Amino acid sequence: MKPISRLSAEHYLWGANCDGWHLVKNQMLSVIEEQMPPGTSEVRHYHRKAQQFFFILAGSAEMELDGDKLVLGAGEGLHIAPEMVHRISNAAGEPLRFLVISQPPSHGDRVVAKAGHKQLPANSENGANF
């Protein structure tokens, strides 16, 4: 077993010049380090099955959760339950680095939320009730 870092991890690009590194990538768990330049944002979305934990390593993140916004700084994290509409943004003037941990992995489980879409009821079966 070897240590993993951004230098040895699988790298990918997403959004507007954002970076991601797969630190753990298997069928049960995903751990990704991501970096977002100032002024970038992901699209509002939710996951049907995956729960996620965002942990800020450096910078400041603006998290939108069901239309409410909160700011997370370095050393702070937030748990996102399945079907909760969310979006992370970097409105600060410095790069944002964070970990996103997903269980099960969220790839293929992402649904873009339409305007006005709120969190689905906890007992929702299909995850597509706009």
Please characterize this protein's 3D structure.
The strands form three sheets. Strands 1-2-3-11-6-9 form a six-stranded antiparallel beta sheet, with no helix packed on it. It has a four-stranded antiparallel beta sheet with strand order 4-10-7-8, with no helix packed on it. A two-stranded antiparallel ribbon has the order 5-12. The protein has a domain at 14-70 and 80-88 and 105-112. The protein is globular and about 45 Å long. Strand 7 and strand 8 (68-73) form a beta hairpin. The protein is mostly beta strands. It contains no helices and twelve strands. It has strands spanning 10-14, 18-25, 30-36, 40-41, 45-47, 51-58, 60-65, 68-73, 77-80, 86-90, 96-103, 110-112.
Indicate the mean pLDDT: 88
Taking the alpha carbons of the first and last residues, their distance comes to 45 Å
Structure classification = mainly beta
Main sheet summary: 6 strands, antiparallel
Strand fraction band?
Answer: over 45%
Q: List the secondary-structure elements in sequence, H or E.
A: EEEEEEEEEEEE
Tally the beta strands.
Answer: 12
**CA-based shape:** globular
The helix content, as a percent range, equals under 10%
What is Rg?
A: 15 Å
How would you write the strand order of the largest sheet?
1-2-3-11-6-9
Q: Spans of 5+ residues with little confidence (pLDDT < 50)?
A: 120-130
Structure annotation, total helices: 0
Compact description:
With 130 residues, this protein is mainly β.
Write the layout of secondary structure elements.
Elements: E1 10-14, E2 18-25, E3 30-36, E4 40-41, E5 45-47, E6 51-58, E7 60-65, E8 68-73, E9 77-80, E10 86-90, E11 96-103, E12 110-112
Antiparallel strand pairs: 1-2, 2-3, 3-11, 4-10, 5-12, 6-9, 6-11, 7-8, 7-10
